[in-house]
Amino acid sequence: MDTTKTDVLVLGGGVIGLCCALSLLRAGRQVTVLDKGVVGHGSSHGNCGTITPSHLPLHAPGTIGKALRWMLQDDAPFYVRPSLDPELFTWMLNFSRLCNARDFRRTAHVKTALLLRSRELLGALVREEKLDCEFADSGMLYVWREARAFERAQAEYDMLREVGVPAQRLDGAAVQAKEPALKPGMAGGHWHPGDARLRPDRYVAELRRAVLAGGGRIEEHTAVQGFRVDGERLAGTVTAKGEFEAGEVVFALGAWSPQLGRQLGLKLPIQPGKGYSITYARPQRAPSVPLVLKERGVCVTAWGSGYRLGSTMEFSGYDDTLNPTRLQALRRGAAEYLEEPEGPREEEQWYGWRPMTYDDLPIIGRAPRLQNLWLATGHGMLGVSLSAVTAQMVTELLTGRAPSLDPAPYNPLRFAA
């Protein structure tokens, strides 16, 4: 079997893996990226491309009650398919224990610090590397149709202000003035001027270009089949193309992390959270800013090159069907809020699996028991938003630099007990 040697081997060519590879190249390391398919075609490809410091943790108080009610509604924004899977049951049990005000507030503070730093770094990365990905300092508008739901959202607004996210509370008239693409009669909204957007498929394509231009190597259609461990080091990564040896390895396999992690004795409590999107040609009355249609859990993003409806959270394992009920829920939800909810031509229907940890924090740091293996996974719905800061943290840890953010909350050891 052929053996290829490299300084740093990055497993996974999604947005996290590519961003880590580029950062390490900029730090002077030799980098090779492996991907089982084509880089950037996992959950990096079809999401809505919003950069959202305004995104609060998933384990808000009351989430479990909603999830239980929604289990009988197969088009619900948050859906858990009834299952006897013990790993899903354990994940949900741990998640439910965190759905309280104290843990929600703690996670919000920790996660927002990461998101705000990544927002700053991502804008700088796009400018410095001249990434042509339709990035814009657009802000983002969360919209409610129902007055009672809008009033209940005051707690979300207060939390965001507490953790330092720029926010403005708008009444219905102000929402209509901010975004004329909305139908009249909205109850209110939250405007977040610090959020941004980009086109995610173009972002990962540009990261790929920058990695290659920086001297990196990308091996596509190179699935990892196994590992060779020598004491406390990962000595080799086995693929159908041969074995890859590296001084350091970055494990950025997204929703596929648990399966391969088990081969290395890693405890990675990640569940695949399935999301959907529909991409259209841009409608005439496209929104000028990204929107979250709160009661229906639909995200809407328009770029110069197109228009996308997306989101939903479905826990159904690695189910690989494109569920028409979920897609129709996106269309129906958008039609309740927007004057022109769909574009003139449908271009793509898509699903992808997000790597969801039960504490809604990513896993970033050295792997237990393996001195040269670094984990960068578990980013949930925020892989694009957290890509730049994850790359910075991995580079700092791997090269021995002083960390610019406290890495302790994201340390893999929190799951090792």
Write up what this structure looks like:
The protein has helices at 15-26, 63-70, 86-97, 101-129, 147-152, 154-162, 172-178, 200-213, 257-262, 324-337, 387-399, and strands spanning 3-11, 31-34, 50-51, 78-80, 140-144, 168-171, 188-192, 196-197, 217-219, 224-230, 233-239, 242-251, 270-280, 291-293, 298-303, 306-315, 346-357, 363-366, 373-377. With 417 residues, the protein is an alpha/beta fold. Helix 1 links the parallel strand 1 (3-11) and strand 2 (31-34). The radius of gyration is 21 Å and the shape is globular. The relative contact order is 0.21. The mean pLDDT is 94.
Please give the structural blueprint.
Layout: E1 3-11, H1 15-26, E2 31-34, E3 50-51, H2 63-70, E4 78-80, H3 86-97, H4 101-129, E5 140-144, H5 147-152, H6 154-162, E6 168-171, H7 172-178, E7 188-192, E8 196-197, H8 200-213, E9 217-219, E10 224-230, E11 233-239, E12 242-251, H9 257-262, E13 270-280, E14 291-293, E15 298-303, E16 306-315, H10 324-337, E17 346-357, E18 363-366, E19 373-377, H11 387-399
Parallel strand pairs: 1-2, 1-12, 2-9, 4-16, 5-14, 12-19
Antiparallel strand pairs: 3-8, 5-7, 6-7, 10-11, 11-12, 13-16, 13-17, 14-15, 15-16, 18-19
Helix pairs in contact: 1-8, 1-11, 4-11
